[in-house]
Amino acid sequence: MDRRQFSLTLVGYSLLGWSGLVQSSSVPSATAIVTSLFTHYESAVNLGQRYLTLFPKEANYDWLTRTTLPDGYNQLDFQILKQTLKMQRQKDFYEGNTVMLDGWILAHTEARLCALLALT
Amino acid sequence: MINDFREMTNETVIETDICIVGAGAAGISIAKYLNGSNISICLVESGGFEFEEETQSLYQGKNVGLKYFPLDTARLRYFGGTTNHWTGWCAPLDKIDFEPRDWVPYSGWPFTQKDLESYYIQAQKWCNVGPYRYQPSDWEADNFKLLALLPEKISNKLWQFSPAPTRFGIAYRAELEQATHIQVLLHANVVEVVSNQSAQVVEGVKITTLDMTKTGTVRAKVVILACGGLENPRLLLVSNRVQTTGLGNQNDNVGRFFMEHPVVNSGELITLKDSRFLANYGNITIRNGTHLKPAVSISEIAQPKYQTLNVAVMMYSDSFKEQMEGYLAAQKVFRALKSGKFADNLRHDVIHAITDLDNFAEGLYYRFRGTNKPFPHDTSISLTSLSEQTPNPNSRVLLDTEKDKLGLPRIKLDWQLTALDKRSIRITNQLIGEEFGRMELGRLQLAEWLQPEDDHFETLTGGYHHMGTTRMSEDPKQGVVDKNCRVHGLANLYIAGSSVFATSGNSNPTLTIVALAMRLAEHLKKQVVS
Predict the structure, then answer these.
(1) Fewer Cβ neighbours under 10 Å: the N or C end of chain B?
(2) What pLDDT does residue B345 have?
(3) A100, B434: Cβ pair inside 8 Å?
(4) pLDDT computed for residue B530 by the predictor
(5) pLDDT digits (tens, 9 = 90+) for A25-68
């Protein structure tokens, strides 16, 4: 899926609303979901690229999806998904599961979400 | 009684029970504590009641280690000593600062914080600050609330601030003037601590006027050096007539272990929500007349876990940052180009990404509208770390070949820091970053110089705090004074002031200097009377 397709997908999400999408026959991909988390696409991609420079072995779309998104992510209500990711970020910070990008202390989860985006 | 040595006859000999050298916070506190005890005291001071340039110039010296303040600006040589430019910050050393820590070389005092507590309580009054209440919980009833931090990582720490810092020379001059058993001797420069032929007992000190037209002797049962962390070791080292390496220097410890409180810019915190929750950290808050300033510090639980020193971090709002934006941006681009990197724009990327993750629905709305979401309410807060320094024998005060007007060798200060000092600051700030992230308050960026795991420091300054150069240890091989501040090997020579600190903690030293002075005075009261 290229950026134009992302944008179309996002516009679709925006028009239909998340719940509408989930209820529709087409199941959103990880890319589409992660893309819709970010309004500042370029910023997220930029962060993701920095992350992948530090952790080149993680430049694996399927692995990042499995590691970062909860099971059944594409079936979850978006608020629940967001809440789950938020809890995962807090857990990362609690456990010290953080990464330093240009000195910024970020949760692995949030950095990997950006990395997912950067891979598409 | 106050006398001026310049007006006394040449070769005067003064007999006294206790001779205190130096009328700063420590010296005046000891004299004040013993006032009314019938112990005769001679408090010898190099300067007069006012700043005198010529006397102050005796403090000139060289910095041969890390960049540091000119030595004659880092302390004051007249009645009241360095309290004459003291800024009024008070906090006791933390409990852990007194404990032996196997990851901090040479750590551990011969007594605990609890042992000093009764003196700290009295010192609060003499330093003109509030009640001895330094736990943040002590102030919750006064509507002073701080962040609920994870004690496994970070804790809150409180300072009290004296808005009218006690100038000991002004505040306690009248009391000393009226004291019947105390003689303050102004304009008397000590040039030697005189010992007997076996260097086991001191007999007194030799004094001279600055123009050296008058000399004299103060003979005393007990001599206390209270001239500060640079001058105490200097006086011991120059008193080498009998013990050729310097008095009390049989184990080559005098002047070693110089510690400051490294003060560095350690990073930036961006708050992505309303930052009023941080207001108490950025300002001085007054509760019941007490001025409070909190900081966050690495907790006493985390220090052994992460093997760090005790580091505190102060938060300051970047009020002038906007004005400086153009300059800083240009500086950043220049630095980036110089280092072969592109200019770093991650700051905005981080703000965007994190706020997106927090507010995706709102983001979709703006995306649909085809407009950008308004920039989030972010506040940039500068982080300044104030750190304990590793006791390090290679960080030291030495004698120079150059001499002052009195013919005494000047000081060479070789201030050294170690990789542990930097690592401790880095880890503390990382933990703060984790805590602010966990609490969804914002994100922290470490200062660029702090990111590499080396011992290189930038933006380094100190707190004008000179500690450790006659450090306390029950083992004469690891220290100069014992638990009662008595110089090892000498029956009646004592040291007062921050030079006896075994470790420095991150608290400003004045309150501990005064508390230790009281403790020494209490010890001497029993010793001299008996």
Answers:
(1) C
(2) 56
(3) no
(4) 62
(5) 466 777 887 787 777 888 889 999 999 999 999 999 999 999 99
Distance CA B138, CA B156 (A): 12
Q: Is B199 exposed, middle or buried (0-12, 13-18, 19+ CB in 10 A)?
A: buried
Interface residue ranges in chain B relative to chain A, Cβ cutoff 8 Å: 150, 267, 344-346, 348-350, 352-354, 356-358, 360-361, 363-368, 372-373, 430-431, 433-435, 437-438, 440, 443-448, 450-451
Residue A6, min C-alpha distance to chain B (Å): 12
Contact B349 A44 (CB under 8 A): yes
Burial of A56 (0-12, 13-18, 19+ CB in 10 A): exposed
Per-residue pLDDT tens digits for B430-465: 999 999 999 988 899 999 999 999 989 988 999 999
| B449: nearest CA partner in chain A | A103
SS3 B136: helix
Assess A46–B contact: CB distance below 8 Å, yes or no.
yes
From residue B187, alpha-carbon distances to A53, B27, B70, B236 in Å are 66, 15, 23, 20
String of DSSP letters for B501-512 = -SS--SS-SHHH
Q: How many structural domains are present in chain A?
A: 1
What is the ipTM metric for this complex?
0.81
Q: Where are the domains of chain B?
A: 1-59+78-128+164-259+392-398+468-530, 132-163+262-387+418-459
Tell me the chain A residues in contact with residue B361 when contact means C-beta distances shorter than 8 Å: 78
CB contact under 8 A, A43 and B368: no
| CATH of the domain spanning B1-59+78-128+164-259+392-398+468-530, picked from 3.40.50.1100, 3.50.50.60, 3.40.50.720, 3.60.9.10 | 3.50.50.60
